[in-house]
Amino acid sequence: MTRLALRRPDDWHVHLRDGAMMAGVLPDSRHFRRILVMPNLVPPVVTGAEAAAYRARILAAMPPGQDTEPHMTLYLTEATDPADVVAAAASGLVTAVKLYPAGATTNSASGVRDIDRVMPVLEAMVEADIPLCVHGEVTDPAVDIFDREAVFLDRVLDPLRRRLPGLRVVLEHITTAEGVAYLRGAEGMAGTLTVQHLMLSRNDLLAGGIRPHYYCLPVLKRASHRAALRAAAVSGDPRFFLGTDSAPHPTAAKESACGCAGCYTAPVALACLAHVFEEEGALDRLEGFTSLFGAAFYRLPPNEARITLEKGAPWTPPRRRATGAGPVTLFDPGIALEWRVVE
Ligand code: DOR
Ligand code: ZN
Q: Is residue 142 classed as helix, strand or coil in its secondary structure?
C-alpha cells in the first residue's frame, strides 16, 4: 500500500506552551482537527477563566487557514473549586481535567499531594460526566523511576477507581505492559499512547551515550514494554488511542546537565505512526487509533474531513523548528521516514 486515506486525526494530548513558543509550534499540529491542550503552564491553567483566556491566546496565534480546534483542560489542584470545573465543562469550554501528582513532571509543583483533598472535585466530575486525564506516576523518591507507573496503578489509580467507579479516566502516555493490562480490564477507562513510546526503548535513550531529546516522562522503558504498547495500539481495542504528548522545550534546556523532559513529536507524529502500523502489518487499524477511538471516548463525532498519507522516497524532517523562544529540536525517529501527509 502506498496511499492511505484517513479521517482527520485528533491529538488527545499536546503541550503548546504559550507566547512565542506557542506561536512557533502551533503550525506543527495542523494535520490534527482537534487537540487536547495540556494546562501545565507557569502558572498553570486552573480555573475556567484561565482556560478561556488561554484558548483565546491559542486561537489568536493560529495561522490563517489552520482549522485545528483546541480542546481545553484544567490543571487539578487541591484548591480547585468543583463548581468552577462543572461550569467550565457545561459551557463547552473545557473537555477534561488533568491530574498531575505534585512533582511528577514538568511544571507539576501545583499538582495533587493528597488525593483525599480533591475528592469533592472528582465526585462532581462523576456527576457531570467530565473525564479525568491522569499522569500516572508516583513521586515517592523511594520508588525507582522505571517502576513509577506500575506502582501508581496499585497505590493510586486502583484505589481511586474503587472509590469512584463512575469516574471516566484516561491513563495518559502509557509506557508499561502493566498499564496496558490494567486498561484491558477496566470499564469506562482509556489510555493514550505516544509516538516515542511506540518507537523507542530505554536503550535508545541510554545505550552508547545519553540522548536528551529522547528523555521524557514517564521515561522510556525496556523493549518488552514497547512490544506491549505496540500490540495495544494495533489491537483495534478502542480503549487505546493517540495522544502524542508532543512537548517542546528550547534545545538548550534539553541539552543540559539537567535536561527537561519532553519529546517534540508533533511535526513527524503521523509519518512515524504510519511506519509503526505498517511494521505491525496493521495499516488498516491506524484510522481507529488516530481518528476514531479518542473522539468516541470524549463523546464527539468522528471528523468528516480526510487526510491522505503517501509512501514514497525517504525524507528527512528538519532537525530544528525555529521559534521566538529559541530553536526546538524535533524528535528523530532514527529510521528513514517514507510516509508523509499529503499537503
Ligand atoms: O516528558 C514530558 N514532558 N512529560 C510530561 O508529563 C510533561 C511534558 C512537558 O510538559 O514537557
Ligand atoms: Zn504531557
A: coil
Q: Are strands 328-329 and 34-37 parallel, antiparallel or unpaired?
A: unpaired
CB-based burial, 284-295: b 16+ in 10 Å, e otherwise? ebbbbbbbbbbb
Distance 214 CA to ligand 1 centre (A): 12
> Contact 47/74 with Cβ under 8 angstroms?
yes
Residue 308 grid coordinates: 491522505
Statement: residue 217 has pLDDT above 90: yes
Residue 1 pLDDT greater than 80, yes or no: no
Residue 118 CA, ligand 1 centroid: distance in Å: 22
Exposure string of 232-246, with b = 16+ CB inside 10 Å and e = fewer, is bbbbebebbbbbbbb
According to DSSP, the residues that pair with 14 across neighbouring strands are 37, 246
Ligand 1 pocket check for 15: Cβ under 6 Å = yes
Which domains occur in the chain, in start order? 3-342 (3.20.20.140)
For residue 216, the ligand closest to its alpha carbon is: 1
What pTM, to 2 d.p., does this model score?
A: 0.98
Closest by Cα among 213, 210, 265 to 243: 265
**pLDDT tens digits, 107-148:** 888 899 999 999 999 999 999 999 999 999 999 999 999 999
